[in-house]
Write a structure and sequence with these properties.
There is one protein chain. This protein is of the alpha/beta class and about 500 residues long. About 30% of the residues lie in helices and about 20% in strands. The chain is built from 15 helices and 20 strands. The longest helix is centred in the N-terminal third of the chain and has 19 residues. About 0% of the residues have low confidence.
């Protein structure tokens, strides 16, 4: 597997009419009856199409040729309503037919609805098929509608696909070194700067990252990406990069280890979001910190009840080696706070407790600023990319006490997502606005535009939140550049 492949993104759009053009008309259950053409109304009735959101019907002419498609959607248009259609067209029409056909959106839609439709269309065309011998999928080509921000659509789609590609890649091809390589490929076209501390160099300044990663022959590292003007507000993203999590000496049962290639999903979210920020030229001084490790079992594995210092100086008793994600995040968060960022956000597949509370689709949000978490929640609902705040319930801090160290790395209360967040809070400076997102980063069953596998849970919501917080200067232009010219992970 070549890491460059992960930067191969769908481009199912054209600015020109090519060959046969088939119109796509978005409709709702309410306005379906307003269609006046009698032949079209008869074909709709024959297909029992009701216009419900997420459904579609292909209408053929008297000769049996496809000449129009109706897509049921909401008002405004919902992004994923167009994903199933694009996916199905690519599967049911022959490659030769698709090469000679373009599709065109019709109807009086606003810019936001058109951009949502195009984004959903592109996600329906995304495939993670790098390991398959048969890679014959031909994406259906949609004409770019007039009046939309094409570069923004491309930037968002490519960021989401990069995230999914990173999570989907098996751990034998996505270790700490490969994650570093991906970060370098990401940074290069945007003139981002990368520095890396790895292996034994971590022991002095980042002892918790070193303790978790030293058990693997694949050297642990702290990846540090910087981009933007020094005069802009400092935005720091931290992503948990546990490239595989066995649970360490508190080894996971097989069924819980099966998906642990996705335990770097927080790093994937941070890198995907960073790509969108750089491509959209948000006026921020961006820093991305990725503690990249593999939590393995070996003679050098850290043990239950070992005690380690941290970058902040707090000592931690490691009662559970499967609660390793919070350890590597702790050192990275402490480093981030030393720079006093305007906003600090971290992303991690941290606890099964968050999944028990909110399920697979909804990440849990914690913040030391309730106003920030409520603003983020509002942005998430508007973007149809849900996030939900949970409390940093301070009385539960007593659950993290240790008889011999400053902290225990795991709490005793059932509220594991809260105690994990409270553990991280110990490494945050009180004056630093901080948001912690505990996510699953995986689609369990598969939905239109969201195939089973690596999933972006919250990225679009956070991007919308950041765009509002750091409104881009009108003098800046979007840079859409290809980067090549049981238990959760703890």
């Amino acid at each position: 597997m070549i890491i460059d492949d992960l930067f191969s993104f769908p481009d199912p759009f054209t600015t020109r009419k090519a060959g046969r053009v088939i119109s796509i008309l978005p409709v709702t259950a309410k306005n379906l009856g307003s269609i006046k053409d009698a032949a079209t109304r008869n074909r709709i009735a024959e297909n029992a199409f009701k216009g419900q959101a997420g459904t579609y019907v292909m209408l053929h002419n008297a000769e049996g040729s496809l000449n129009q498609i109706l897509v049921g959607t909401g008002d405004p248009v919902r992004m994923y309503d167009f994903s199933a259609l694009a996916d199905n067209l690519g599967k049911t029409l022959t490659g030769e037919t698709l090469k000679k056909t373009t599709f065109r959106l019709e109807g009086d839609l606003g810019r936001d609805s058109l951009e949502a439709a195009c984004t959903g269309w592109a996600l329906g065309c995304h495939r993670y098929d790098f390991y398959k011998k048969d890679r014959t999928f031909v994406p259906p080509i949609l004409q770019w509608p007039k009046g939309i921000r094409t570069d923004r659509v491309k930037s968002v789609v490519n960021s989401l696909c990069l995230l999914r590609n990173l999570v989907n890649t098996p751990s034998n091809d996505m270790g700490p070194a490969e994650l570093e390589q991906a970060a370098r490929l990401l940074a290069e076209p945007f003139k981002g700067r990368i520095s890396v501390i790895k292996g034994a160099e971590l022991e002095k300044g980042f002892p918790l990252i070193h303790a978790v990663g030293v058990s693997s022959p694949r050297a642990p590292r702290l990846i540090d990406l910087k981009w933007g003007k020094a005069s802009d507000p400092k935005l720091t993203l931290v992503g948990k990069g546990v490239c595989f999590d066995t649970g360490g000496l508190n080894i996971k049962p097989g069924q819980y280890m099966l998906l642990m290639k996705k335990d770097m999903g927080g790093a994937a979210h941070a890198l995907g979001l960073a790509r969108a920020i750089m491509a959209l030229n948000l006026p921020v001084r961006l820093r991305v910190l990725i503690p990249a490790v593999e939590n393995s079992v070996s003679g050098t594995s850290f043990r239950p009840r070992d005690v380690y210092s941290s970058r902040k100086g707090l000592t931690v008793e490691t009662s559970d080696t499967d609660a390793e994600g919070r350890l590597v995040l702790a050192d990275a968060l402490a480093l981030a706070c030393e720079e006093k960022p305007d906003l600090l956000m971290d992303f991690s597949t941290l606890t099964g407790s968050a999944r028990a509370a909110l399920g697979y689709d909804i990440p849990a949000v914690f913040s030391n600023n309730e106003k920030l978490s409520e603003i983020l929640k509002t942005a998430a609902m508007k973007a149809e990319d849900p996030l939900w705040p949970l409390p940093l319930w301070q009385p539960y801090k007593r659950e993290l006490s240790s008889d011999i160290a400053d902290l225990n790395n795991i709490g005793t209360t059932p509220a594991g997502a809260i105690t994990a967040a409270l553990f991280l809070e110990h490494f945050i400076e009180s004056a630093t606005p901080w948001i912690h997102i505990d996510m699953y980063a995986w689609e369990q069953s598969g939905k239109p535009g969201r195939p089973r596998g690596g999933a972006d849970t919250g990225l679009r919501a956070v991007l919308a939140f950041l765009e509002d917080r750091y409104a881009a200067s009108k003098s800046k232009k979007t840079k859409h550049l290809p980067p090549s010219a049981k238990r959760e992970g703890g």
